[in-house]
Design a protein that fits this description.
Elements lengths: L2 E4 L20 H5 L8 E5 L3 E3 L2 E3 L9 E6 L6 E3 L5 E4 L2 E11 L6 E4 L2 E11 L10 E12 L2 E6 L3 E12 L2 E6 L6 E4 L2 E6 L2 E4 L9 E12 L2 E4 L2 E14 L2 E3 L8 E5 L5 E7 L2 E5 L1 E5 L10 E7 L2 E5 L2 E5 L5 E4 L2 E3 L3 E5 L1 H6 L2 E4 L2 E3 L2 H6 L17 E2 L3 E5 L7 E4 L5 E2 L5 E5 L2 E2 L5 E4 L3 E5 L4 E6 L10 E11 L6 E11 H5 L1
Parallel strand pairs: 1-2, 2-5, 3-6, 4-7, 5-8, 6-8, 7-9, 8-10, 9-11, 10-11, 10-12, 11-13, 12-14, 13-15, 13-16, 14-17, 15-18, 16-18, 17-19, 18-20, 19-21, 20-22, 20-23, 21-24, 22-25, 23-26, 24-27, 25-28, 26-29, 27-30, 28-31, 29-32, 30-33, 35-44
Antiparallel strand pairs: 34-37, 36-42, 38-39, 38-43, 40-41, 41-42, 43-44
Length: 496
């Protein structure tokens, strides 16, 4: 395992390259080497390389080839008239702590690659000579891009096509320009996780949107902040797609603009759209198609536990044949709840139940006191079952009383997550609610901690109780169930 050093200012290609004082000067010199599993190529901070870097060799799963940086100061910069970093057929590669700017093509291009990790990479003004995706992967497997920044590029921020196993985690994409540009475009891919990203198309000159997820299989889009564009998330065709806990806003400019849209580029099956805050736009969730008479199947579309406000159209639009339900959503007064075509109403294929209208959504979102009477929805499949929980408190030392809501629940898949508690969505950092007699914090894994508030307790024997509703799923949109946690407080024990 060899470490090679490259310094554009002080290095020389006549050096051996294996020490900081004997660094190479160019990336082309590195390309002339036969890199082996476990080797590293470190670029000096402050260096600028005006050339494309081709990665030709593969690491192993246990010993990937790493491309990174060393020294102090600004990250090393790769400029190129072509791609910044380019690779075909290489596997087990890690790229980290670099900047790629003003490339004529993609900042990073990987074709037929596998097991790549890109992290802490900054991309600026890529794609200057063509509308290429600034980070592009095609026909590949197991690609992770995390904690990276992409700004003011021409073309899509990410272009992902035919990749099995893609993770986009905690990245920032700002202003992807061009007539066909989205912040993220994922086509014909599977096993997708888009999580924790900040995606902002507010100042982009594109008429398109933020996330385009086309013909996806087994995809999760969660905990992202999505701003601007003609649409927030377009998932026009796919199977087993979960879109949850995102903040989606600023999607307008066209009478068709939507927060989340599906149904117009192929069959759409098993969608779970839950826990999103969709606001400041035109339509909320649109199940539609651009051309009449399409024969696409749109089945088992569940839209629940979302918050809708400041929309010029309705929270839900269904104007093409579809089956599913719209339930337990919160809608600000002044926003129309739904627009469903008469033919679909007559077919009784898309149910509406248990939604509520509130005068001020911001108050609801800011409140930690909401609890209790959220509408429940029966499990669509007996593969997942929620069972009532009890917490009995006989004595109190001031510490939290702990338990797990999921311990007595079950799933055929063996995986469970707490998605809703009370009237609120359980986010990645959990949720805290103030009840009638105490404060409870819950996490997605089902753990809870309930702390009594003595100022709210009666001063006589007997008992008091309060009940919280909760909802669970197993990561499959059609598998969900709901039940309750009841807290019994025995005052005689506390007062003795």
């Amino acid at each position: 395992m060899t470490v090679y050093y490259v310094n554009s200012a002080t290095g020389s290609d006549r050096n051996g390259g294996t020490g900081q004082n004997s660094a190479f000067a160019t990336l082309s010199k590195v390309e002339s080497l036969t890199l082996k599993p476990g080797d590293s190529v470190l670029l000096a901070k402050g260096s600028v390389f005006n050339e494309q870097f081709d990665i030709k060799y593969s690491g192993s799963e246990a010993a990937p080839i790493k491309i990174g940086s060393y020294g102090t100061g600004a990250a090393p910069v790769i400029n190129s008239g072509g791609d910044g970093i380019h690779s075909l057929y290489a596997s087990n590669i890690v790229i980290e702590n670099l900047e790629i700017s003003n490339s004529g093509g993609a900042a990073i291009y990987g074709g037929n690659v596998s097991n790549w990790t890109v992290r802490h990479v900054e991309v600026d003004k890529a794609g200057s000579s063509a509308e290429a995706g600034s980070v592009t992967f095609r026909n590949s497997k197991n690609v992770t891009v995390e904690d990276s920044k992409i700004s003011d590029v021409k073309g899509d921020g990410f272009w992902i096509e035919k990749v099995d196993g893609i993770k986009l985690l905690n990245n920032t994409v700002t202003n992807s320009h061009g007539a066909r540009a989205d912040a993220v475009q994922v086509n014909d891919s599977s096993n997708i996780l888009i999580q924790g990203n900040h995606l902002d198309q507010t100042q982009a000159d594109s008429w398109k949107g933020v996330i385009a997820l086309v013909r996806a299989t087994d995809a999760v889009v969660e905990d992202n902040t999505i701003i601007g564009g003609g649409f927030g998330i377009s998932a026009p065709a796919g199977k087993n797609v979960a879109i949850r806990d995102n903040d989606i806003s600023g999607f307008h400019g066209y009478d068709w603009s939507f927060g989340i849209g599906l149904g117009d580029q192929g069959n759409s099956r098993d969608y779970d759209i839950a826990g999103n805050h969709i606001h400041d736009g035109t339509w909320g969730v649109a199940i539609t198609a651009t051309v009449d008479g399409t024969s696409y199947v749109r089945t088992n579309i569940e839209v629940h536990d979302n918050v809708f406000d400041d929309l010029s159209k309705s929270a839900l639009k269904v104007d093409r044949p579809a089956s599913g339900s719209f339930y337990s959503n919160t809608i600000e007064s002044g926003v129309k709840a739904y627009s469903i075509s008469p033919a679909i109403v007559d077919a009784h294929s898309f149910s509406v139940s248990g939604n509520r209208t509130v005068a001020d959504v911001e108050t609801v979102l800011a409140s930690s006191g909401a609890k209790g009477a959220a509408a429940t929805h029966a499990a669509a499949d007996p593969a997942i079952v929620a069972v009532h929980d009890n917490l009995k408190i006989f004595t109190d030392t001031g510490d939290a009383h702990r338990g797990n809501l999921l311990d007595n629940d079950s799933s055929d898949k063996g995986t469970l997550a707490l998605r809703r508690f009370g009237d609120e969505t359980v986010g990645k950092h959990g949720l805290t609610l103030t009840g009638e007699s105490g404060v409870i914090h819950v996490g997605r894994e089902g753990n809870y901690a309930y702390t009594l508030d003595e100022t709210k307790l009666p001063h006589q024997d007997g008992h008091v109780s309060e009940t919280f509703s909760y909802g669970i799923n197993d990561g499959t949109p059609q598998h969900h169930d709901a039940d309750t946690l009841t807290v019994f407080i025995h005052m005689d024990g506390l007062l003795s």
